[in-house]
Specification:
Layout (H helix, E strand, L loop, with lengths): L4 H7 L4 E3 L4 H13 L12 E3 L4 E5 L5 H14 L3 E7 L7 E10 L7 E11 L7 H5 L9 E6 L6 H8 L4 E5 L7 H8 L1 H4 L7 H5 L1 H9 L3 H9 L1 E10 L7 H14 L2 E8 L2 E8 L2 E11 L7 E9 L12 E7 L5 E7 L8 E4 L5 H10 L5 H13 L4
Parallel strand pairs: 2-6, 3-4, 3-7, 4-6, 7-8, 9-12
Antiparallel strand pairs: 1-5, 5-6, 9-13, 10-11, 11-12, 13-14, 14-15, 15-16
Helix pairs in contact: 1-2, 3-12, 11-13
Length: 388
Amino acid sequence: MTPTAETEAFLSGQGISVPLSTIETELTRLWGPSAEGIDGSDPDHPTVTRLSLANLVVGCLGADSEQVRKALDTVLARHPCRAIVLRLTSDPVRRVSAEVAAQCALPAPGLPQVCSEQIILSAGPNALDLLPGAVRPLLESDLPMVVWWGGDPRPYWDLFRDLTDEATRLIPDFPDPAIDPDLIRLALDPAHSGNPFSRDIAWYGVTRWRELVAQFFDGVAGLESLARLTQVELSLAASSLEHPARAGAWLVAWLAGQLRWKPLTRTVVGPRIEAQFESPRGPVAASIDSILDPSVPYAQVRDVRLKAAGPNPASPNTRDESFRVTRIVGTPEVRIETSSAARCVLPRLVHASEWDEARRMAAALESRRFNPPYDNALPHLMWLMGCE
């Protein structure tokens, strides 16, 4: 069958308007010629492969919606899904309109294209309550339902809760640090978000930093140094200094959760957090500070400094150990420095580029549903950010 202009537009990612009640029928019709091969090839060897690993419901109704939509194309190329995108329009009529489009990644030589499908549901302010009912029949059976919510959900709270109550996983995606602590509590605390598997996208933004810090403490000697930590200092770049950056709080919270530190005192002044913990070996001081950089889309860690007491505190000759990871601004490189009598102290450079929104979201989709490090860190994050 010769593909039509409509089919070619569909495969190129252009939205095709379809009746809400016949979305599945229209998708089958549009995929049909593609399954036979858009170049006239054998139907048993199509040039286009339709693939879906999850139902990804994308709520992007606020001012950040365009940023989320741009990242979606990259996410689907890495993690093919059935994406159901919710859009807010100015339509005064109480109705939901629909468009469908394919999202295809460039194939490897000799292999068919791998394509996801997007279903775009648009509604005006008077029809937002119709969206959950429009979403449910479109969910692929036997696949997880992931809700990716961009921006502040509070203006659309009923819709947000209706979707997240049924989701396998919730991924809140809101600015860091331009949000108030109340929003963090509402979106991340399962008692408020309605989902016990909420995963803050900022957690994935510090994945590489967690790896670099953990590498300091490999082996028996490293574990001994880790137990003797007394000080953690973080510096970040942020587009706003109104609130502390979650990225820094997540990094400290991860250490506290993994090492079973008990929170003692906390002071928050503008973007700066100072906290005291009690570790099994004694007190630990933590500080998180930010510098203003309007160019960064998310708060970005620039410097991590750790200090550990010497191996024999009772000896006058013992030396404290220090560990530092520093971003070389404007490059994907970080500098690793160690000061310890028990290990190599030659500095080195490591490639560790910042993860953009699409990479963070892809990591969130690929992560395990049960994530003990995240769960252990979350109470400490809430405490550090003043969200109890």
